[in-house]
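Weekly sync, protein design subgroup
Attendees: M.S., D.O., the rotation student, P.L. (late)

Item 1: inverse folding check
M.S. brought a backbone from last month's batch and wanted to see whether the design step gives back something sensible before we order anything. D.O. pointed out we never logged the input encoding, so this time it goes straight into the notes. Structure tokens as presented (228 positions):
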């Protein structure tokens, strides 16, 4: 596991240097062929410094993934807390801008070269913030309504991530604002947009839908796999 972080300028720069070096190497070769000696040589540091931060290359890649998912977690939470339509789309713009600003890292993570499960983890994070989406009237119709809501959510997540993947594959030819607007108007679930437009309809607490969430996650496990 990555060592416990100490937030100072030197350690931040060293971690970033190591991360950027591995990302560049992953653009040219498989993860399994990258070793510590090669990373240290290209990063301009010695092996003892590397081991002050990481146990191995896989540990370093996990840190890259963790940093990205941690930032996404913050932004997804912010998106689901948006109470006005004008608040929601700028959050999506910020997410797209992050992808554009960190395009090498995002390309590697979405290409599955680092971790084949990365996109599934991202889908799970979105689902974690969407328990309220399965809210349905009490009674026999509740389960069917919840299932339909989560299937619709998975469909919209797949559409949004598919659009981002196409944007990444096209070398970010469109602006972050253009992609964000397309996600907001075309891929975002109608219920989420309704929440942003009418905060009075937002549930005051998250309903318990553990079975529905487990079903949705099991359906998401196969999403995003690409064959070479």
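Designed sequence read out in the meeting:
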């Amino acid at each position: 596991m990555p060592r416990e972080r100490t937030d100072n300028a030197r350690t931040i720069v060293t971690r970033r240097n190591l991360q950027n070096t591995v990302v560049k190497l992953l653009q040219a070769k498989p993860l399994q062929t990258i070793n510590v000696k090669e990373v240290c040589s290209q990063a301009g540091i010695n092996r003892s410094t590397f081991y002050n931060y990481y146990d191995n290359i896989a540990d370093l890649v996990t840190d890259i993934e963790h940093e990205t998912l941690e930032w996404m977690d913050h932004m997804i939470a912010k998106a689901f807390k948006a109470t006005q339509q004008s608040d929601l789309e700028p959050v999506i713009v910020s997410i797209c801008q992050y992808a554009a600003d960190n395009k090498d890292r995002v390309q590697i993570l979405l290409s599955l070269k680092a971790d084949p499960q990365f996109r599934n983890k991202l889908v799970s994070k979105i689902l974690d913030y969407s328990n309220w989406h399965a809210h349905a009237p009490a009674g026999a119709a509740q389960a069917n309504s919840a299932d339909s809501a989560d299937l619709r959510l998975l469909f919209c997540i797949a559409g949004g991530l598919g659009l981002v993947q196409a944007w990444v594959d096209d070398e970010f030819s469109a602006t972050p604002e253009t992609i964000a607007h397309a996600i907001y108007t075309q891929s975002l679930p109608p219920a989420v947009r309704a929440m942003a437009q009418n905060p009075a309809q937002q549930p005051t607490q998250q309903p318990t839908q553990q079975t529905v969430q487990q079903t949705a996650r099991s359906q998401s496990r196969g999403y995003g796999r690409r064959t070479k």
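Discussion: The chain has eleven helices and no strands. The two ends are 29 Å apart (CA to CA).
Action: P.L. to compare against the previous round before Friday.
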